[in-house]
Each structure stands twice: as C-alpha cells, then as structure tokens.
Fold this protein.
Amino acid sequence: MAKISLKNLTDRQREVWRMRYQYGWRVKRIALELGTSWPNVCQILRRARHQAGLPYRRNISVIRTKPRVIRGQSLSRFFGY
C-alpha cells in the first residue's frame, strides 16, 4: 500500500486520520474522544480522503434485498404420510 501524504490536510483531519487508520479506532470511539458526533467524524474522514486525492463513496444508497423467511415444513407434505 502506498504511503499517503498528510501534509495538505488540516490539523483536525490529520488527527482523525491517525486515530482511524494508524491506531485502528472505530468512528464512534473517535467521536467520543473528540466530543463530536459520529456523522461529523465520517464527514471529516470523507473530506480528508478527497483532499488526499483518494476515491471516496458519495451518498450511494445500498439496496438490500428482503431477507427470506424459511418456514418449517411437515415431512408428510413431501412424502405423502
């Protein structure tokens, strides 16, 4: 993996970037540490990725299929008991 230059990031972005990618902290832990909300941390990370020239996802909604419900069946239905 290529080394990313953090020189063009703000101090806040650099701090959040290190907490997330160097220390491996989760977003909620970073938010608690900084006294902000987790969506704000996600936004800071998104802006940092953009400034670093890395690709980022942009409000792509994931369409999930409805989970299948598997109901129990009686054996007599299949074997004619």
User: Anything to note?
Assistant: The mean pLDDT is 81. The two ends are 62 Å apart (CA to CA). DSSP finds four helices and no strands in the chain. Residues 4 and 52 are 7 Å apart (CA to CA).
